[in-house]
């Protein structure tokens, strides 16, 4: 464990927050979450090497074969190996979810900072817009956007990212409003720093800690949304391997007893989301006392 | 010695925030008269003390002299030019020479900024030195204020330092651009008792070395006595007495000054207080007493004291008092 | 004079995630009836912790790990919850630093007084209780109509005086005042100390005055206990200590305070800063900053020695 990436992350966090090492529950949650994510990441990165078959190969032999033998997770109705499809599907879902979270956070944080700091008209309008978007149920909004934009990896990423922008906005704006009144911001003004410098060097670093937790939970949620969208048939063409789509395709075989077609994609979706959630929750617990202490 | 800073009839009123209902029924706006017609000047190279209890307006006055607040009325002239005549950008440039040391060293440093970067930041803003030169200068000044070993402490964060060290960081940050004028707002109040002397000594030493002019704000008269050349005693937003420190402390003219001096706890068990202390407490700055603000608590109050406000009259060499006596 | 409180080898620790904070380490103290004992030191020296320990008001994880506190012969450390409850407020009272947070903002002043009274004297009638509150306010120099007001309607100085009132209403033997004037302005502070002096005579109180302000202590205290880094440094008569401080820390402290009555060309500064209580320095806690530290100081903790009618914890006198 000592030299694993998870411990490395834990060590980095310990160093940053200045806390001693404490292996309480929150650490285990974080570590397990990180391990899950890393395992699936590994799967995604080395997909071609790990997967025994091509995910598109419709000639693996048996049709609708149960798990066992050559096929760890069985085959689907098109004679494709489910395990290979799972491995390749991880790339899609990770790519979409993480990219969507990155886009959301960049836009949300930036707008939150500017809005909170400058106040006035811009703040009023932004808050209004953000509150309206926020009040929409996320999935409905994502469906609307996905339907509007049409299929494609980029489009689905955008559709998912829109939902989370208000979350970052509200969080960052609230914190900016509070930090704006702190003495060190006044001190920054007293040394002659411009508004932009104050935002970037003094406010942003003090806001970023909480957004990290939101980011991980964001990814967890984005995974679910992406799966939901593809499950509904929106967003991705069939040439792209995706867990949500496999889930959708596989459901009609359940009554006839072929459970492996939906179980494995479903389990993977849940597992990946769980991994990110655990990472987020663990981080929140660990960073929290540090934040409170200041 | 010419005047470095001249404050003329400075006023700062803060509008009182009222609830919604009060706003509907209020007849007129109420204000907290934090600074009410304050005038004084500071000569180059001297330490001017602004002394008073909480709520007297000394901190607000300090902020106003650096234009960290906009005044309601009055003027502050720095080097014979009004600081309110500068544009926002020009004012930012002026800050190279006009700095402030805050009371709370923990709150005035960004918790996520390494102290080396924090100290060096004013230099980054105001000079065009490159990164290496800035760091060098930063280490230099850190050694000067006693943050040693500088290269070790350079990367540390505020929460990893002691209170005394943090206050040194704040001082270093204020001095790195070689300012002429420094406002020190209760710089030692929050430090541990055993560390205060060291910080005071440091400020005296740095003043000599960098040829600084201080506006030293404090509620501790003993501290003021140690470091200040001249002193202005403030009460409820007004200056009640001003003059050379030795003169004011030896021959206090204003009744308030007399009671302040009498009330200071002296670390000597044989000392017994001679002057009586007034009853009651500092009234609110929203509705200050009419006439002389101190009259309700003044033992020598006369009939005029609750009608007219006294002006500053000269009672000694450069020694002024606002009292009808 | 009778001894009312005797603290023997008290140790109070706070186990936290990075280690154990040794807030009070091996402190012994004797308190005589009617005297004012000044407990002096800077923040973190353990004086407030000691004060809280006397009434067993320590916040967890703080624990008394060692020692005895004998009040009229009974050990406070060993007392049951019930015994302690009957002690608090009635025999030993405590007043705190910030009156705004120590008084309940939702109750009127008279209600707060009456709560204190009814807790200990269950058969008191409401009118009698009110009358006692009135009398108390008169001793405090506050007009009795203030009883019907809420804490936020009173000024800081008045609230602090109400605090004393609540502490004294049951006529305790001992009053512990924890930094009572730190949040007050100079003039109000002087008024408060005068009041404390008056009340002490009137009610025949014994007072422990916990403060970092040596000026306050000089005015009021008969004896002084100086603490540093959780340990006892010097104990003795106030006059003696101010005239001739024995311990290097006391000496350093006294010469580093600006004194308004003296012409001080230069203040003596003490290098370094107060110690880390999780990892205190070995030997004498003060040795890293002591101008007269010897070899033995770095290795072994000094005991408490008698010198000049005082107690000093320093190898120079051992």
- The CATH homologous superfamily of chain A is termed MetI-like
Q: What count of structural domains of chain A?
A: 1
**Fold-level CATH name of chain A:** MetI-like fold
Radius of gyration of chain A: 22 Å
The CATH homologous superfamily of chain B corresponds to: P-loop containing nucleotide triphosphate hydrolases
Largest interface: B-C, 42 and 48 residues
Question: In sequence order, what are the helices and strands of chain A, one letter per element?
Answer: HHHHHHHHHHH
Q: Beta-sheet strand percentage of chain B?
A: 15-25%
**CATH fold field value of chain B:** Rossmann fold
Give average pLDDT of chain A, whole number.
84
Distance between the termini of chain B: 32 Å
Sheet of most strands of chain A: none
Q: What ranges of chain A have pLDDT less than 50 throughout 5 or more consecutive residues?
A: 1-6
Q: Major β-sheet of chain B, in short? A: 8 strands, mixed
Structural class of chain A: mainly alpha
**Amount of beta strand of chain A:** under 5%
Label the CATH architecture of chain A.
Answer: Orthogonal Bundle
Give a count of the beta strands of chain A, DSSP E runs of length 2 or more: 0
Radius of gyration of chain B: 21 Å
Mean pLDDT of chain B: 86
Secondary structure: elements and pairs:
The complex is a heterotrimer of chains A (294), B (325) and C (318).
Chain A: H1 5-17, H2 25-45, H3 47-50, H4 82-118, H5 120-135, H6 138-149, H7 153-180, H8 183-190, H9 195-231, H10 243-250, H11 260-293
Chain B: E1 3-15, H1 20-25, E2 31-43, E3 47-51, H2 58-65, E4 73-78, E5 81-82, H3 88-94, E6 98-101, H4 115-126, H5 131-144, H6 150-153, H7 163-175, E7 181-185, H8 193-210, E8 213-218, H9 221-227, E9 230-235, E10 238-244, H10 245-250, H11 255-263, E11 312-316, E12 319-322
Parallel strand pairs in B: 3-8, 3-9, 6-7, 7-8
Antiparallel strand pairs in B: 1-2, 1-4, 4-5, 9-10, 10-12, 11-12
Chain C: E1 3-16, E2 19-32, E3 36-40, H1 47-54, E4 63-71, E5 74-75, H2 81-87, E6 92-95, H3 99-102, H4 109-120, H5 126-140, H6 156-168, E7 174-178, H7 186-203, E8 206-211, H8 214-220, E9 223-228, E10 231-237, H9 238-243, H10 248-256, H11 295-299, E11 305-307, E12 310-312
Parallel strand pairs in C: 3-8, 3-9, 6-7, 7-8
Antiparallel strand pairs in C: 1-2, 1-4, 4-5, 9-10, 10-12, 11-12
